[in-house]
Amino acid sequence: MKKKSLILALSLVISTLAGGCARPSVQEPEVYQLSSTAMGTLVTETIYTAGENPASSVLELLTQTEDQYLSWREEDSDIGRANLQAGQGAADVDGKTMEYLKETLQLSRDSGGAFDPTMGQLTRLWDVEAANPRIPGRKKIRQYLKESGYEKIHLNDSGTPQVELEEGVSIDLGAVGKGIGCDEAAELLQKDSQVQGAVVAVGGSVLTLGSKPDKSPWKVAVRDPRGTQEELLGVLNLVGETYVSTSGDYEKYFVQEGKRYHHILDPFTGYPADSGLISVTVLGKDGLISDGLSTACFVLGMEQGAELLEQYQAEGIFVDEKKQVYVTDGLMENFELSASGYVVFPLSP
Ligand code: ADP
Ligand code: MG
Fold it and tell me: How close is the Cα of 247 to the center of ligand 2, in Å?
């Protein structure tokens, strides 16, 4: 059994009742909603604004960010060109791509290599979304593992920004792309002084900004990692600018001989991460970081994952195989469990 890609790690529960009990004001906002695809995933937007509807501009920006900078499928994106040049010299990239890569590599170092954006070859080898996915041969895994490693990315920022990759390296920004999308969306929406509040979900990464007219918190639902697509683990009540990302073993996977093989790889083994966790949700102040941290924590496991979150002043929800839900102190009050069969515990530093 395998799940297709357009599945939300987080589904959104958004109260769309604009106005209603809200106090009338001169600049009463309208609510606009849009649901479409970009960055290879489902995008949903709810925007409260007294000005023009910016929803399609956000969508265009996401597509442009993917096509111009991030995509490893597009040969003429910055990452696509750097990958093609691997082992043959440096590729010129946009300043934005340079900034994304710097933050990404810092996360690789801070996570002790658990987060590694150079496993493009391994991701394609596993191809868990293929029609008939299967466990790859050990030899091939070992070879690609040897050719990967974040320290094989060399950034040159003096003059025109350049990226140079060692032979065999293939950058894959799948673990931060949707978070970067949220950062870009936030920048665009924050420039528009008429926008009073917004929720943008790019697959499993969600951005909340500002507030609803009635000032009630945004409700972002976390998916039940062992439920159907519509079933929720619980709801996060959030206020203002936040970035929430979830990584789980239920997103993209196949089952062979009773074992689940999913899309988050352990850079130390080349096999799907096996840290005892089935889902990690991270809440932080930056989209790229929250997205990257959720992947890193999934690989590291709860103990080391929680330490990494502390370092980044981020909060998190860790769900383990025993259906135990560990919530960091700063999120305890915001999280309401709704699924049955799970038990919540506080996770103190
Ligand atoms: P999703 O893309 O489903 O939201 P993640 O944000 O956790 O989930 O990203 C998983 C993707 O990141 C994989 O599909 C793969 O492209 C890439 N990836 C897999 N393992 C790692 C890892 N250890 N570090 C960095 N990127 C990874
Ligand atoms: Mg991620």
Answer: 6
